[in-house]
Amino acid sequence: MNFYIMIFLTISLIYSFYLYDHNEKNVVIKYKFTISSFVFLLLTITIGFRDALGSDYGSYYLDFIYMNISYLDNEIFKTQKLDLVYEYLSFLTIFLNLQLDFLNLLIACIFIFSVVFFSNQEDDYLLIILAFLSYHYLVLGMGYIRQGLSISFLLIFIHFWRNEKNLLSWIFIILAIMSHKFAIVSSFLIFLRPKGNWFYFNKYFYLLTLFIISFIFFKIFESKNINDYFEVYSSEHSSGAIYRTLAGTICGLLFFLKKSFFKKRLDYRYLYVSSTVLILLFPASFFYSTISDRILAYFLPCIFIIFCTIPNTFKIIRASVIKFVLVSIFFSHLLIWSNFSSQSKLYVPYRMIDYPGAIESPYKEFIRYCC
Fold first, then answer.
1. What is each CA distance from 278 to 32, 64, 317, 355, in whole angstroms?
2. How many CB atoms sit inside 10 A of residue 236's CB?
3. Got the DSSP string for 198-230?
4. CA within 20 to 30 Å of 175's CA: 20, 257, 276, 339, which one?
5. CA-CA distance, 248 to 300, in Å (whole number)?
C-alpha cells in the first residue's frame, strides 16, 4: 500500500475521535502534546531518512557532492550566494563529516517542527496537519526542500508578527527570503501592524521604499534576464497548479464571505491581504501556472487558518460534517496525486535508507569527473 496514504489514514483515525466527540476531555485535545510529538517524529523520520526520493533529489545530491569536494580540496566553503540558509546548513553537515541524509534530517526537523508549532496555535490542529499531508508534505518536504525550508521560517514569522514581536519577525522573514527568493512575496507583512493603524509609516515612505526595491531589483536582474526568467515559466505548464490555485481562490472567497468570524483574530490583516492575493492567483495560473503554484505555497499559513476556522461559521451544517468533507477532499487529492501525477514516480514507492550515513552513491566518482 502507498506509505503516504497509510500515514494520512493513521492521523485521520486519531482525528476521528475529535470529530465524534468535540469537548475539552476529548483525547485529541487532552493529549495534544503527545499526539503532536508523535506526528513530529513520524513525519521527520520519514523525510529525513528517505532514500533517493523527490523531484529535485539528484540536483541536491550533486550540490552536496560539489560542496564536499570543494571543501576537501581547498579547505574552504564556496557559496553560490543563492538560498544561503540551505547552503550554510549543507556546509555545517560537511564540516561535521556527515552524509546527505543528516542534512535531510536537519531540514526535516525544522520543516515539520514549524508546521506542528503553527498548527498547535489553532484549536483544530490535526485538520491543518491533514491538509498539509495531502500535497505539500511530499512536494516541499522531499522535493523542493529549499522552498520548504523557507516556508518553515515564514510560519514562525507570522506567529511572531501577529504577537507583535517585531525583532523576531524581522529575523525570521530574512531567514525565509535567504532560504528561497520567492518568500519575498510575504514580506508585505513587515510594513503592516497587526492592530491599530494599518501602517507603521505614512504612504510616502512606502512609495519611496517601493521605488528603491524596484530599482535594486532591475539593477540586480538585467532586463534580458527577467525576460528569460518569465519565458521559462510561461513555457512550463502544470495542470495541477490550476486546480490548486482554484482551491486557494475558494479559500480567499470564503474568507470574505465569512469575514466577520475572523475580525477578532490577531492575524486578521494578514488573512485579508493574503486572501486577496489567493483570489488573483487562479486567473494568473492560466498564463503562469508554475510560478502561481509556487507563490500559492507561500500563502499556506492563510489557507491553513481558513480551513480550520470556516467549518465553525455555518449554522445550517454541523462543523463535524464540513470537517469530514474536507478530510475526504484532502485524502482524495493525496490518493490521486500520488498515483496518477506525472511526478508521483519520483516519490512512490517510499524507500528508506539502510541506516544513517550508510553508503555513498556508487556513482560519486563518475559524477565528480563527468558532471
1. 31, 35, 25, 42
2. 13
3. SBSS-HHHHHHHHHHHHHHHHHHS-HHHHHHHH
4. 276
5. 9
Cell of 222: 538585467
Predicted confidence (pLDDT) per residue in 236-276, tens digit: 777 778 889 999 999 999 999 999 999 989 999 999 999 99
Give SS3 for 357: coil
Cα 168 from Cα 149, distance rounded (Å): 17
Q: What are phi and psi of 50, to 5 degrees?
A: -75, 160
Report the C-alpha gap between 294 and 286 in whole angstroms: 14
User: Do the Cβ atoms of 49 and 41 come closer than 8 Å?
Assistant: no
Residue 352 φ/ψ, nearest 5 degrees: -115, 150
CB 141, CB 350: distance < 8 Å = no
pLDDT for the residue numbered 364? 45
- The CA angle 127-132-137, to the nearest 5 degrees, is 150
Grid coordinates standing for 344? 508521483
Task: Identify the DSSP state of 140.
Answer: I
Is the pTM higher than 0.90? The answer reads no
CA-CA distance, 34 to 340, in Å (whole number)?
Answer: 35
* CB distance 308 to 15 below 8 Å: no
Cβ proximity of 296 and 238 under 8 Å: no
**Residues 134 and 330: beta-carbon distance below 8 Å:** yes
Instruction: Compute the distance between CA of residue 290 and CA of residue 61 in angstroms, rounded to an integer.
Output: 23
Q: Which three cell numbers stand for residue 83?
A: 538560498
- Give the burial class of 33: count Cβ atoms within 10 A of its Cβ; 0-12 exposed, 13-18 middle, 19 or more buried: exposed
**How many residues does this entry show for the chain?**
371
